Amino acid sequence: MEIDKSKPYPEINSLECKSCGRCVAACPKQVLQIGKVLNVRGYYSVEYSGSGCIGCNNCFYTCPEPHALVIHKPGKN
């Protein structure tokens, strides 16, 4: 999956994700989903669909894990 880095996108640290689903529920564009692959800690990490993120940060602010999720927003030229 190729992510268009000229638009906002989430970066999910699968090792830190505990699969609570808060970010999935908070996303107004529904571009996050619980994955189907277990991480090394035994959780199904959240995955990004690859497009559609608007950079609202709802997922970031609802995530209880401090290093599980970061939203990247491109700079303006």
Structure in words:
- The structure is a single chain.
- The protein has one domain (9-72): 2-Layer Sandwich (Alpha-Beta Plaits).
- It is α+β, with helices and mostly antiparallel strands and 77 residues long.
- The chain has a two-stranded antiparallel ribbon. Strands 2-3 form a two-stranded antiparallel ribbon.
- It has helices spanning 22-26, 58-62; strands spanning 9-12, 32-38, 44-48, 69-72.
- The model has no long low-confidence stretch (mean pLDDT 94).
- The longest helix is centred in the first third of the chain and has 5 residues, at 22-26.
The SSE string, one letter per element, is EHEEHE
Mass-distribution shape: globular
Which sheet architecture does the biggest sheet show? 2 strands, antiparallel
- The parts where pLDDT drops under 50 for at least 5 residues are none
Helix share, percent: 10-25%
Pairing-aware structural class of the strands and helices? alpha+beta
CATH topology: Alpha-Beta Plaits
Terminus-to-terminus distance: 26 Å
Tell me the strand percentage band: 25-35%
Primary descriptors:
two-stranded antiparallel ribbon; single chain; alpha+beta; 2 helices; 77 residues; 13% helix; Alpha-Beta Plaits
Topology:
Layout: E1 9-12, H1 22-26, E2 32-38, E3 44-48, H2 58-62, E4 69-72
Antiparallel strand pairs: 1-4, 2-3
Provide a compact summary of the structure.
By secondary structure, this protein is of the alpha+beta class.
